[in-house]
Amino acid sequence: MATPRNPNRDDLRITEVLEALSHPLRLLVVHRLAQREREGEEMSCGDLLPEVSKSTASHHWRVLRESGVVHQRRDGRRLLLHLRRADLDARFPGVLDGVLVAAERDPGVAGAVHTGGDA
Fold it and tell me: What does pTM read for this prediction?
């Protein structure tokens, strides 16, 4: 199994980050990762979106990883994810926090965040 390629901090582009964050499922993933981040934990891909098919989830992981929103690493057979908060805050101060606050206020995303369901 190949190791996922994560972009360097200097290669992050705001247009790609915002595009990655424009989908309700990806916002849900970012919200779930932000909650775990407070506890210093990563999450496995399988635990993040158990309510969607593996192929759909894989697509969303790729978009989030390639945009630089998340870091993905292999741990044996599992893929673990965490937010790239330090990199995002260094390149685009306040963007991640602003998006998370806005997601909480969006009925489509907030409903999925609070119920654990699909957005």
Answer: 0.85
